[in-house]
Amino acid sequence: MIFSKFGHQLTRPSGIVSLMEDLGDALNVNPDLLFLGGGNPALVESFESIVARHLTEIAATPERLHKLIGVYQSPQGDEVLLAELAQYLRETLGWPVTQANIAVTSGSQSAFFSLFNMLAGEGVKAGSHKHIVLPMLPEYLGYADQGLAPDMFRGFLPKTEITGSNRFKYRIDFDALTLDENSAAICISRPTNPSGNVVSDAEVAQLAVLAEAYNIPLIIDGAYGAPFPNIIYGEARCEWQEGRIYVASLSKLGLPGARTGIVVADEATISRLVSVNTVMCLANNNLGVSIMTALLQSGELDQICAQHLLPFYRAKKDHAVACVDRHLAGLPYYLHEAEGAFFLWLWLDELPISSSEVYRQMKELGVLVMDGAYFFYGVEAPSLHTKQCIRLTYCQSEEVVERGVERLGGLLRELYK
Length: 417
What we know:
The chain has twelve helices and 16 strands. The protein is of the alpha/beta class and 417 residues long. It folds into two domains: 5-41 and 304-412, Aspartate Aminotransferase, domain 1; 47-298, 3-Layer(aba) Sandwich (Aspartate Aminotransferase, domain 2). The longest helix has 27 residues, at 301-327.
């Protein structure tokens, strides 16, 4: 069979495909693997109990059950959910938004595919080629292969600040960050996947100034951030501004199987996004919509984030950090300051082999980690971090994290001899 350019581009090996294959292998084929590599949220039993209660109520109400399984929702999203979300954003964050500013998609991954290809790639003007600016690598690997045009992304390496013993933090290098007439949008994840970094309020404001100067949107991927699930361990404002596009997800709230994304933007952007979403998906699934509507109407959403999710993930993070410090003691490692999300980003200074080889050898030891090289793309001259970093998730049980990090420490001690 002969494939088109589209077929070749989306079927070639990629980081996100490898990640999801590993996830499927760990969950279904080889459950004995110690899985420290994926982005699946943890099992939070108290949250799932709340969801189960709402699903039971939905199933017991014929009208609500029919709405869940028997109808298409409108292309923009269910009208009741859109109204609830608009009210929630106005009351919780003070955003001056209406239903016309919000769209529901089949997961945030599909939302980004639509947004990136709406904004960047081959321009209307002959010979023009637009790109998405990623102001601070490493950045979410799921963006990397979404561009239908070549060279869709232009990434910029960060400043690296040593913040303490075995600790560091990335910051945006505004001296190196450059935009031009072919820049279509600026995009950040906040908190950042993979590093757990939270781009500061001051950095966001500076990015907004740049975006406004070039009349392009600033896209903020809040999959792990505000307003939900708000897995941020410090303070971070979430402000509305004309020209910003916010993308949220129900996955990290604890509903990855519901495949529901939420986009908040100006009315014109939402209208165009809905058109693309309709062509691609016809309509979104109703499961996430039904659960989210119930959580908003019951007033439980903020309580879930503050009292169930945040303390749970904070404890997981503290345990994982302690494991790394214990099992890697004396080695030349640095942990990125874990400010949000549910990952540890480990920089192995002077690593004698590549991070890709560490991934391979750890897999032989029965542990899956994430090779950090995948998170550096759109840049011509990558840094040493491209080959010296790995990402660990702390969503597994404490026993799995402990055993996985212990094996990692054993491998690294052999390598650093």
